[in-house]
Amino acid sequence: MLEHLPDPRPGLRDLARVMKPGSKLLLLVTEDTLTGAMCSRMWHCRTHNRAQLRQICQECGLSFVRDLWFSRIHARLHLGGIIMELRRADS
Prior knowledge:
By secondary structure, the chain is an alpha+beta fold.
């Protein structure tokens, strides 16, 4: 859903708001890579930069836990988009 918002912050803040403190969120978005750009053109969605998205999540009350990948080849070639585990910061 974040790929279709002009700014991901309101969506992420709302997700953090409805989560219990300490609960987890699995976030999947299109990454700003060559394959992500092709998906973006086909599906008319935005792509995200991994480091910037981590910072935005932090601003919205979601702490980065770890990156996840479909396989080792996906990790090595940065395929499959951004998949990250986040945790709601304790209030």
